[in-house]
């Protein structure tokens, strides 16, 4: 929670810095946020892979240095250079979300994982209740320059704390709970071993024996790619789609709430709606974490998507807050169920990379959901944002559930 707090305030601070300090528009502020999001999406898998290969302490060194340097310099740059700094800062963002999930995957096992991942999602909701508000106060009452610098230095200190604490990311490390691998993990590990151990002459011979085969170098390149993504099975891909869908709904709902209240001149009442929305997520997370049976992330995403649509038809702040409770109850369960599923499906040797891609999928959904909702809001009105992201993600969930059913029938 401590390490995530600066991240939760960064978005508001960056937006207000562009609008207030640099005297630019909200569209240009959105461009900075989009560039940073792209950087995070690109960097997350690479940072996770470094944790798998080099260990946590070595992998975090570039992030600690970059967070301290970039966000101490970025507030003093012109808008054009700030775009570049935001991109680089995004790539080297401290991978605290994926590190926590990866560590929880080996610290607990069985049904306890559901509770642990749910508490992680609940903690995130609590952070996002206070972080953005603190960032706004710091920006308006003190300085956006100081605020962004504090965010960078605080994140670097959090990284140093993680390096000192060094939570286990493998079951062989102290404190971890060793769990027997699943059959799917055994198969994936076997494929990786065979691909990695096969000598060069095997690939060369296979290329010579098959008529019209490509040269051995291309064959080996394909084998390396297959080895690198051996963990990416169809069930894992479905979870990544769920993460992207969840990000889309959350970002679209965020923009929709702001649009509805601003359209009615009640933007000052924004905090009440976000309080109801996030509090519901905390309650839903606690309930889901206490359950003894998992629920499919696709089912949870479908319910959250459908329940988001009615928020567009609220005619007062009270009604909007009330309607936000139902989809809010499913927010933390969706994220915790997806994290739990990734931890179950991917062998721990590749789990850091998988969690990185999970974070990238979630971030990509956020990057897509906000402009999609904004486009509908500009076209048809504030209610269009909720309908757009809710309907699109519900359709995505139904397609995923249909694909799962078809796969099960073929396997029978």
TrEMBL record:
Keywords tagged on the record? Membrane, Transmembrane, Transmembrane helix
> Residue ranges of the Major facilitator superfamily (MFS) profile domain?
223-412
Cellular compartments per GO CC: plasma membrane
Q: Does the keyword Acetylation apply?
A: no
Its localization reads: Cell membrane
Q: What is the protein's major site of localization?
A: membrane
How does this protein sit in the membrane?
Multi-pass membrane protein
On whether Amino-acid biosynthesis is a keyword of this UniProt record, the answer is no
* Residue ranges crossing the lipid bilayer per the database entry: 31-47, 54-73, 79-100, 121-139, 145-165, 229-250, 270-288, 295-313, 319-337, 357-377, 383-403
Q: Name one GO molecular function term.
A: transmembrane transporter activity
Record's protein name: Major Facilitator Superfamily protein
Species of provenance: Arthrobacter subterraneus
Q: What is the lineage of its organism?
A: Bacteria, Bacillati, Actinomycetota, Actinomycetes, Micrococcales
